[in-house]
């Protein structure tokens, strides 16, 4: 067969004089099958390379027709790296005239050089000439490609700067924008010491602040920020601060731009400035011009190089003046902007600028407390993060007037916001006992409204009490009657408020303030009654044994002094803020954990140890709280890392706890802001859905009694699992090969579970799919030089035991039982590079009361608004229009004829529906599906429809149709 394909390729390729870039000949398809087949011999690959090279150099072949052949050669090099060098030299020797073909060949050469570093010098030798050739071609797309890939082509920096500066005057806006971004990238990647060059680049970007196109102004702001800071750094004289002030004022001029994106870029850029005069910073917080900078302050105006309300610009060759009023009310406007993206960016800029000046930080606090009531959770989170940063640098001076708005975040609907507010309280320094009492009351209200926050509230109370020992003691003395037994002698300690106050009492003696507290010792004895509850919340600083010893010591002492008391001859200190673990409590905690493990093993053997560890895992997972916005990705990574623990719980039957944990994680994950890494978050959600389905399925397979119950609910769960895994496989771009291998194992598990059920044990098609998937896994494992997992190895042994009767495969469902028991759900690595393939359908002007008109028996057009995300040319999309399962139509969607790019396409499409019913009205269900091109079994046989199964990219929409009624 291999020889036949090779012969066909050799026969077809030299005569392919009419090759089309959009429709590769049959020979190229046969060549691709040989390249992707791991069993193809080296001699065949060498022969194929020679044949493709002959086709590439065919004298009568049009230049544009070389594109498919170049693509095949690139695939050959990526799958067989030892052929990279001959392919590189073959493509390099081409004499091309078509700009597109020249760009395609350069792209392939750059890819080859990136994979084989020894080819980089050869690429550099000739790439500059070709690059300049492409830059002066009339095709806009070719020039755009050349500028976007200049770094890959190893263009010398001084030449590239000249080219990029020239393209900033190109008549096409996207070329001007990409040239500016190229200058930004160049500024970050090389060391520039030519002051004149830096000033020229900066001045050109400033000129483009007035460009008509939003994308150009956005790029101009980024360029001015980068090159302006470099210009400031190159000046070591007294003019350095003047230049930095001028840069800041120049960027301030863009914060009122009409474009949302430009305003966001401007505030982001302001946050990167590391040196600004305090007068200018203060002016940004007030719309009214301050007298300190504009009235009767000639000294200040002269120091800033100002000319009566103006200052010198960044360019000495083209002098122009910047109004000092540019900075007036900048952050007032930013924090009051109608778009949350701008408000968040303004908060982030305050995050960094507040470190520069204590006075500025104090004035900025007045604005930030108002932002804490913002409608957007993302903005509230950023405001809290800014406050936390100010507190870390001792810039947060909280007054009683600020506390009302701040404490309102402790009862926010969002758990992430409440957690962020508590993080600020952990490190805040308060100078007034009345403000401290307000903070304690706020935490107690948080606990009352959201009991699930108890562990973190207790931990925060311990921290603030440790930092303010005197204040904590005063509060406890004032509320001691709430802790004391009631009149009939009963102790009422089951309330969260009393437990929280006891934690605050525990914190007071741990303060480093050298004073004597007057907390009655019996208060600490009351805390012993809640030992388990309190120790769970404080487990990160002391274990239960240490806490018990500490409470015993405090309850038996008549006077408790701060900072000093002994427990078995050792000083007792809490961990310091930087997370250091060099303290006796931490060491004792670790020792106690080790002893507990030894006791478990010694008492009940390995099974008891496993169950004990499992219970600890259950407890840890259920008590897990997602961190604030700044640690969102870390939180998601924690979830993915704990998948192994989840799987252990599933195996030992903790289904309820697992489902509760996964449900909480999904809820928290859905609240996260995902604009910068939406694909990765969607993939993580999909991974949690699969874990949830497996948790529901597993009891059916670990219990023989449930296995004999037949399909029923089991069949529904298996169907959902099949759809969810296929969505994971086909709806995400950028998966690593290791992740692809794990997805294939999940597909394999799905087939094994189906074959393990009573009704499906004779399903021959599923068995064929299983063999095919197993072959793919073995091929990919070999490519990665990895040994197959235990699950795959055991499954191969089981398959060898299957016999074949005259009627086909014959086996029992229990044959796969051992393979199922060995399977382990692995951990995915969170990658922000993942892209989520999805779509949105919109049917405007149609509902039950406003149906579209139609004539029974005749076709009708249904107007749809379609938005596609991350769709590539290789994808095949189909619209499914169905009245019911038996009456459906498919319409192929050729999205190349519509505008947009691979990241997002938005257009209107009139979908024809031919099978209109002879009825007065009916409903058509419309959905958009992606054809699974790598599936082996054809699921649809209808003429004109998809040949393979579809994975749907959006929710189903209902379109209401009604006959035209004449009045």
Please tell me about this protein's structure:
- With 967 residues, the protein is an alpha+beta fold.
- The chain is built from 42 helices and 19 strands.
- Strands 12, 14, 15, 17, 18 and 19 form a six-stranded mixed sheet that branches. A three-stranded antiparallel sheet has the order 11-13-16, with no helix packed on it.
- The radius of gyration is 34 Å and the shape is globular.
Summarize the SSE layout with pairings.
Elements: H1 2-12, H2 26-36, H3 42-56, H4 66-79, H5 84-92, H6 99-115, H7 120-135, H8 140-148, H9 157-167, H10 173-189, H11 195-207, H12 214-234, H13 239-252, H14 260-270, H15 278-283, H16 291-294, H17 298-303, E1 310-312, E2 321-323, H18 330-335, H19 340-353, H20 358-371, H21 377-392, H22 400-408, H23 415-427, H24 433-449, H25 454-467, H26 469-478, H27 480-483, H28 496-507, E3 516-517, H29 521-528, H30 531-537, H31 544-556, E4 560-561, E5 566-567, E6 570-571, H32 584-622, H33 632-641, H34 643-651, H35 655-671, H36 678-702, H37 704-707, H38 713-730, E7 732-733, H39 737-756, H40 764-783, H41 790-800, E8 803-805, E9 808-810, H42 817-822, E10 835-836, E11 838-842, E12 852-854, E13 860-869, E14 877-884, E15 887-893, E16 904-913, E17 921-931, E18 950-952, E19 957-963
Parallel strand pairs: 12-19
Antiparallel strand pairs: 1-2, 3-4, 5-6, 7-10, 8-9, 11-13, 13-16, 14-15, 14-17, 17-18, 17-19
Helix pairs in contact: 1-2, 1-3, 2-4, 3-4, 4-6, 5-6, 6-7, 8-10, 9-10, 10-12, 11-12, 12-13, 12-14, 14-19, 19-21, 20-21, 20-22, 21-23, 22-24, 23-25, 24-25, 25-26, 25-28, 26-28, 28-29, 29-31, 34-36, 35-36, 36-38, 38-39, 39-40
